Amino acid sequence: MTCAAMDDTMKKESDDLDRLTVNIADLEQVEIQIASWCNRSCSFCPSGKFPVPKTGMTSETVDRIISELERIGFSRTIGLHLMCEPLMHKNIQDIVKQFRDRLPNTFIRMESNGDALKNMDRLGSLMDHGLNEILINCYDSPEQFATFNQKILALDPTGGPIWYWNQWQRNPATPKKEWRVVKLRAFYGSGYSLKNWAGHVATQRPETLTLPLSLDCARPSNRLHVNYLGQVILCNMDWKFEVVVGDLRTQKIEDLCNAPILLDYRRHLKAKDRNMPLCRQCDSGGPTGLQPSFPAADPWTGLRALGLDLKRWHPWKRIRSALGLRPPPP
Fold this sequence. Notes:
Layout: H1 3-20, E1 29-32, H2 59-71, E2 77-79, H3 92-102, E3 107-112, H4 121-128, E4 133-138, H5 142-153, E5 163-164, H6 165-168, E6 181-186, H7 219-222, E7 223-226, E8 231-233, E9 244-247, H8 253-257, H9 260-270, H10 301-312, H11 315-323
Parallel strand pairs: 1-2, 1-7, 2-3, 3-4, 4-6, 5-6
Antiparallel strand pairs: 7-8, 8-9
Helix pairs in contact: 2-3
């Protein structure tokens, strides 16, 4: 090989590495398995399909994760629901407060089945401790949805108002770090096109797919996934911790974010090659089909949303713009 050819090869490898390397500040979300289990075992979810110890993430591991995020100045999304029911952790409110106090500019959210919210005061308390958003999935029936709906409409927390998404059909206009949002999703019924969680559950789609799919996947590039042990894993499909990247308890987060195994997965996925462990059985990214919905909270929802639009509509600005007129002096 000539020197020029070697230089070209080295430059190509360098460019390839730059293309695969992730800037830690560009991570969209850090997803954390705050508890090791969920109290339910649904047909479409791997939870309960294999034995796991029922334990919460230790305070030492929580502190280490926050310290690493604090050190790099992380200010995007924290998800506390990775492969678990987060409300199973007995100290979840204190954990939310730790994240809020030490990472004040982050958007903290969780998804829940709502079973642990028999006392809805707990929902208000989570918001008061710094939670920005909770998505509650109603898996059982329209009656379950209706019960939650009425309870949320009646909420009057001491720490301030809660923005009920189903009531407004839109997000608040305030900065996300100030949100206090509740979303209620109707997940009962059948016919949904749901992912197979990388082969951990039977196919949940009416469509027939040929695996491995010839598709890219952004998860190993734009999110970091931390299990209850403090290990960084490939993604939210890795329920059995088959692809462990490293240990956040002992390694720096920036080193884990660009660990050799993640670079290798990114290289394959950017080439739409999923023929790798875990990915080869994954149908995520396939046809979406019918999905769970977010029904309106009450008959006035549509009018309420229209009212917000009217407040934001400034007809005189549009008329002045069309005529080329300057706005009046302040």
